[in-house]
Amino acid sequence: MRTAYNCNQEKLQKCKHKAGCCIDSAKDTLFALSKDIWSCAELAYEEKQSHDILVRFFTETEKGWSVESHYKLDTAFRATWGPTGVNAGGDTLNIGFLCEYDALPGIGHACGHNLIAEVGAAAAVGMKGALEALVDPPVRVMVTVIGTPAEEEGGGKIDLIEAGGFEGLDLVFMAHPSQEDAAYLPDMAEDDVTVKYYGKASHAAAYPWEGINALDAAVLAYNNLSVLRQQLKPDWRLHGIIKHGGVKPNIIPAFSELVFYLRTPKRRDLPFLREKAEQCFRSAAMATGCRVELQYGPHEYHNILLNKTLTRLYEENGKALGIEFTTDEQVLNTPSGSTDFGNLSFVVPGIHPYFYIGTEALNHTEEYTAAAGSDKAQFFTLRTAKTLVMMALDVLFNPELLKQVKEDFHLSKLKEECEVTGRENGSGPGQWGGAASASR
Fold first, then answer.
1. Radius of gyration of the chain (CA)
2. Contact present, 23 and 127 (Cβ < 8 Å)
3. C-alpha count within 13 angstroms, C-beta hemisphere, residue 267
4. Number of helices (H), then strands (E), in the chain
5. For each of the chain's 440 residues, which pLDDT tens digit applies?
6. What share of the chain is helix, strand, coil (3-state, %, to 5)?
7. Is 423 within 8 Å of 268 (Cβ atoms)?
8. Measured CA angle at 262 (ends 260, 266), to 5 deg
9. How many CB atoms neighbour CB 21 within 10 A?
10. CA distances from 423 to 318, 395, 418, 419 (A)
11. How far is 409 from 309, CA to CA, in rounded Å?
């Protein structure tokens, strides 16, 4: 005997199949979109061509979308479809897919953001196609695509958060290229700082004693931080460059500049690492007689909150499509990079999985740039988009799952906030001993 549950499951499976078919039907167009973005490779906040490529996709290539071409930021956009299921009553479930499209200086799309854009666009195409074929959606649903610029530098998602750009969304999905498939990896909280030393120029051979060497300050600071690493927790990171060290060997450098990134597995620890680093920067100025300026970036990136329900759903649906998720404990538990999606994960329940693109090359290398623009990456990219849609459909068809997702979100956020409060009321930066924190 067929039950209502069985009928619902059959309908769900048909929707998933339809979504996959819609994505496959658009594969050539999606690859062209990705390749065009890969080819123009624009930096943060300058992604004008990439932005326009995506806007044209949702206004001309794909029909039925309502598009705001400059959404809160010049190179951001929002495309919406729906709501559909007007007879279902109740609230509208607003499902968001995100696109990134900024590149890296010098090596282009070495982090594969063209593929992130493609995943977001493909998932939107699949979700819309599945819902259009569904006579009576279980709930009112809207599909939203938001183009988020400047992930590599600046934090476009944080700009959008502050401008209210994600208000009204119930869920946000995106996926990032990597060397393996993982539903969750522990991205780190991060802050960047530019350090400028001001000294006094003088002839380096004739009367060096008249000068104040700003390069010496930079070198001392660099070495101070290298020594500091011995006292840092194993999963804390600081790394940087000397961006400016002088203009000519026979001139005592009157100016030097460093740029450093500071990272910790949890945002609660960033202030302590920041204080230690500042001591290194300022002591170098004191030792050389230079004046120092510290300029922090416009935004601090947060770690990504783990949503256990969405992670489980992604793995279940991915395995159904043949994804082999990594079981390497070092990969799964070692903090890696940082993303402004971390900040968004504190605002809206979401997931930021990683996907294999057919290469063992490492991100931020020329080899990865080539792989991100290759035909080979397409199968893996579209399979990831299908997995995101299948997961979204699971939540759409099962209200209990949505409740679990929101409960996971609130519990993870509460735990993080309690840990921050505990830090503020407990040990400070000079009291790192005692019980280890539950860092990633």
1. 24
2. no
3. 21
4. 13, 12
5. 456 566 788 999 999 999 999 999 999 999 999 999 999 999 999 999 999 999 999 999 999 999 999 999 999 999 999 988 755 456 899 999 999 999 999 999 999 999 999 999 999 999 999 999 998 888 999 999 999 999 999 999 999 999 999 999 999 999 999 999 999 999 999 999 999 999 999 999 999 999 999 999 999 999 999 999 999 999 999 999 999 999 999 999 999 999 999 999 999 999 999 999 999 999 999 999 999 999 999 999 999 999 999 999 999 999 999 999 999 999 998 888 999 999 999 999 999 999 999 999 999 999 999 999 999 999 999 999 999 999 999 999 999 999 999 999 999 999 988 876 555 555 444 333 322 222 21
6. 45, 20, 35
7. yes
8. 165
9. 15
10. 38, 36, 9, 6
11. 9
| CA angle at 238 for the pair 234 and 244, rounded to the nearest 5° | 160
Output the six-digit token pair for 365.
């290398």
The Cα-based distances of 319 to 115, 125, 322 in angstroms read 21, 22, 5
pTM recorded for the entire structure: 0.91
- Count CA within 13 A, CB hemisphere, residue 369: 16
Q: How far apart are CA 322 and CA 312, in angstroms?
A: 15
Q: What are the tokens at 127?
A: 């979700």
Q: Residue holding tokens 């009553």? A: 89
Record the tokens describing residue 122, joined without a space: 């493909």
- Strand pairing report for 140-147 and 77-84: antiparallel
Residue located via tokens 């203009």: 247
DSSP 104: B
> What is the token pair recorded at 266?
């949890």
Dist CA 64 CA 76 (whole Å): 20
Are the beta carbons of 343 and 299 closer than 8 angstroms?
Answer: yes
CA dihedral 241, 243, 244, 249 (to 10 degrees): 60
Question: How far apart, in whole angstroms, are the C-alpha atoms of residue 322 and residue 287?
Answer: 59
Q: Which residue has the tokens 């993080």?
A: 416
